[in-house]
Amino acid sequence: MDKKTVRDVELKGKRVLMRADFNVPLQDGAISDDNRIRAALPTITYILEQGASLVLMSHLGRPKGQAKLELSLAPVAKRLSELLGRPVTLAPDCVGPEVKALAAALQPGEVLLLENTRFHAAEKTNDPAFAAQLAELGELFVNDAFGTAHRAHASTVGVTQYLPAVAGFLIEKEINFLGRATGKPEHPYVVVLGGAKVSGKIGVIQNLLGKADKVLIGGGMANTFFKAQGLEIGDSLVEDDALDTARALLAEAGDKLVLPVDAVVANAFANEAHRKTVGVHEVEPGWRILDIGPATVDHYRQILEAARTVVWNGPMGVFEMPNFAQGTFAIAEILAEIDAITIIGGGDSAAAVQQAGVAGKVSHVSTGGGASLEFLEGKTLPGIAALADK
Ligand code: ADP
Ligand code: MG
After folding, report:
1. N or C: which end of the chain has fewer CB within 10 A?
2. Parts of the chain belonging to CATH 3.40.50.1260
3. CA separation (Å) from 234 to 229, 247, 260, 283, 288?
4. What is the pTM of this model?
5. Measured between alpha carbons, how far is 320 from 348 in angstroms, rounded to an integer?
6. 218 within 8 A of 317, measured Cβ to Cβ
7. Spelled out in words, what is the top-level CATH class assigned to the domain 6-172?
8. Domain 183-376, CATH 3.40.50.1260 — does that match?
9. Which pLDDT tens digit goes with each residue over 105-127?
10. Residue 197 catalytic?
């Protein structure tokens, strides 16, 4: 990675301002998945062990520029304190004289968590005066919020105008893995793409088609390709305004783009609907494609077993319904078994890999949904671009 990290700067005795991605899912005020907090621990622990004090900041949910009690970072402070085994003080806000005094009083090894940055509209507008107020709380800025790296906000980009800025270990890890997908991967390089829509993934297909040896298509997006080829797809999800794009991609990609050969179809969009497995030429009116079929899984398995690098984005079917999750889970299991660098990007894909129980058996599950997608599209992420070069 060509950006400086926490390893490249002196931390002893410093007060570090760190942006983390603590945007965790909440259910009835409790954290239902603390993976994002855990993902920040290596950087937090390293900074504290180096003899620095730490001011942490994050957004949570969409408070739309207003202080909302239900989107307070209080549950995060509690969970983080449990995971670190040391106290974490929650500030009453993220800026202002009281917060400034709390930050100034920090001793080496002490942790202050600022309240939700999006309680202020100035966060998302990247207001310079607001960014300067945040920057006053530390002497050095560390960004480890990969999930928000595609947003130029005050706490991700604005503060870098006022403080030396380096990456944390999570951002470093994300760039190292996702960078293989967009840079110089070991071949054969296979990309698996699924999800609901082609339109959301055109940038990814276009960027990776030139680099990959095969692009395996699944999920709802396959339907648009089928229709573009003139196949009957019944009531399947389709994007009619993406048909021209699909045709152009098919022509450009040739046999690099691989489509499913069979599908699990249902007579309604419901887990308990009637379902059957059919060839992709046998879909009847009134039925809809909700998963890839077993012959497709076998075909994809053969291609994946030969791969040295695999990137997967987008579920193969409507995996939220157990009866249509088999294709997605089968691909997850294949990725866990093969001898290749396996990289998972996308929020729903990451959830599918978790549910399949193989998150620990793939090389990397990206913590950034939108950010990983933009990275795979080859876009520059402003939160990373703003960090100091090596
Ligand atoms: P990611 O978050 O990993 O980038 P997407 O958001 O692009 O993935 O796509 C995930 C969604 O695609 C899921 O909600 C899933 O139900 C839906 N999906 C997958 N296959 C189909 C299908 N055949 N028909 C309708 N929706 C589908
Ligand atoms: Mg998604």
Report:
1. C
2. 6-172, 183-376
3. 14, 19, 16, 6, 6
4. 0.90
5. 9
6. yes
7. alpha beta
8. yes
9. 999 999 999 999 999 999 999 99
10. yes
